[in-house]
Known about the structure:
three-stranded antiparallel beta sheet, 3 domains, ADP binding
Amino acid sequence: MAxxxxxPDIIKVQGELAxxxxxxxxxxxxxxxxxxxxxxxxxxxxxxxxVILDDVWKTLDSEKKLGIPVGGRDNCCKILLTTRKKSxxxxxxxxxxxPLSTLTPEEGFALLxxxxxxxxxxSTLNDVSKEVAGECNGLPLAIEAVGSALRGKGFNEWNLxxxxxxxxxxxxxxxxxxxxxDVYGCLKFSYDELNDDNSKLCFxxxxxxxEDYEINLEDLVGYAVGLTWYQAESIExxxxxxxxxxxxxKAASLLLDTDWQNGQWKKAWSDTEESV
Length: 276
């Protein structure tokens, strides 16, 4: 499996493919790596290999650019790709397309209640929480982020949240197309609800990293110390405080774990963070 993303790093994608199959790529040139991968696929003892390409944004010559053999008698690969754009599937000639729709209003409301931990017997939040869920337009990550931000809040705060979500959609934001406006509104609300400046600074710093980049804890520690986010007595103390900040961002669905054992995360929102 490999993540392609909006601006694909071909060298990285090739490396992820090789690593997931237990192969080693020592070449540094993109074309040489593709040739080597193609050879390894053809010489593989596995009769069937499923290659998963995640987050594909545009047509990609998987054989020429990546080294995945497509077609022919010696082809041992099946390719499964995920994309937001139907045109990508059509241009690549996908045999089967499986569209994933957004959540139904009922599913969205249930997910919001779960993440906000609303008591099923609490009728005071029933109507306003339904409206808030509706403003998220069935987008799971948006619903989770908004629900987490409103956890433990009362009616007035929910009502204010509803107002803010509606207001966020009224303004044209440079770089945000219409289909991402709902996402932007929910992201902006979740960001505004962060309870301290260090959390906001950490989120904004993470938004500067490339899409799908695995952000390393030690890199963030260096930035935190250099930018004096915390009045820490030592680097160890700063690291501990930063870990607390990161846990808060993860709880707010603003960061995702990729390799928690080695302290690596990536952005949860790839398209709209820079506009916050």
